[in-house]
Amino acid sequence: MSAAVLVCPNPLKSVPALSNRQPLALLPLLGRPLIGYWLEHLVRAGFREVQVHASDRADRLREYLGDGIRWGVKVEVPEDSAVSHSSVSIPLSTPSGSAASTVVIDHLPGIDGRLLFESYSAWLWVAMEWISRAAAQQRMGMREIKPGVWASLRARIASDVQLHAPCWVGEHCCLSSGVVVGPFAAIEDRAFIDTAARVSHSHIGADTYVGELSEITNSIALGNILINWQADSWVTVPDEFLLCSMLDEPSTNENGWFSRLASFMASAASFCRRAEVSEFTPHAAAGSGTSVLARSACPSPIPTPEMANQS
């Protein structure tokens, strides 16, 4: 029986903030963790057994992967791994016989030359490049509501939200009234973007709250961690009304998480209507009176890879 070996990356000095809350292999990218893309790729290539070697929070990998039945492949995460992250990545092709192939999952299938974890900017730009590929995988409930703009049918999007390509809005997100997303923006599953907030050239992690009137530019936001991908720097935002994880433990402050959660639900009812994304209609640009409450240190427009020239 054909077998493959996946080697999960350890926390890296180049992108320490990305592994703050979960192993890099479980970091969500457009609705799926990195290791999920690889398992799907292996199944399509004909593999039926996969060993996953991980030294960073391997218990989290075991919990997520289970026995692999949801992918139609047998998955094992050994207790002791003899394979290191420094192993040479061997491209996986259609298997023959019972030979095992090994790959370090520091990139996405089919984009071998674009390493995800060389820098924060590498993560952001590979995510932007991956939008069209992820959409082409016939995601259940995802629709292209206008060229380059993909949104889940399960997302709550207020009628006056502006979405600028390229952008991605994941499942069970809430985008409140006056929100502007894009260009070059990805909003992961269950994120909450509050009233009149703006997100551009940025990646918003799963279960992340972005506060009312906030502006996230040239950044990666993971819970209360705000990364400036241009400067390869990051900070922890102390004010939960600006940026926080919606999975954090409740605050001991009487005006903390529980009261904020009630506020979120009220905001969802007031500002987010459950709409079929096919009914989305672009609106004219909003006025310039938006207050900036939280943003990366570099306010200049983004530059970079060839993709920036498309904006």
- Low-confidence stretches are 86-99, 249-259, 266-311
Terminal Cα span:
47 Å
Number of helices: 4
Sketch the major β-sheet.
8 strands, mixed
**What pattern of helices and strands is seen along the backbone?**
EEEHEHEEHEEEEEEEEEEEEEEEEEH
Mean pLDDT: 78
The percent of residues in helical segments reads 10-25%
- CA-based shape: globular
Determine Rg (CA atoms, Å): 20 Å
Number of distinct beta strands = 23
User: How does the helix and strand content classify structurally?
Assistant: alpha/beta
Number of structurally distinct domains: 2
Core attributes:
eight-stranded mixed sheet; 17% helix; five-stranded mixed sheet; Spore Coat Polysaccharide Biosynthesis Protein SpsA, Chain A; 4 helices; alpha/beta
Structure description:
With 311 residues, this protein is an alpha/beta fold. The chain has 2 domains: 3-104, Spore Coat Polysaccharide Biosynthesis Protein SpsA, Chain A, CATH 3.90.550; 142-310. The chain has helices at residues 34-45, 58-65, 120-136, 257-271; strands spanning 3-7, 28-29, 32-33, 49-53, 74-76, 100-104, 142-146, 149-152, 156-157, 162-163, 167-169, 174-175, 180-181, 185-187, 192-193, 198-200, 202-204, 208-210, 215-217, 219-222, 225-228, 233-236, 243-245. Strands 7-8-11-14-17-20-21-22 form an 8-stranded mixed sheet, covered by helices on one side. The longest helix is centred in the middle third of the chain and has 17 residues, at 120-136. Mean pLDDT is 78; it is low at 86-99, 249-259 and 266-311.
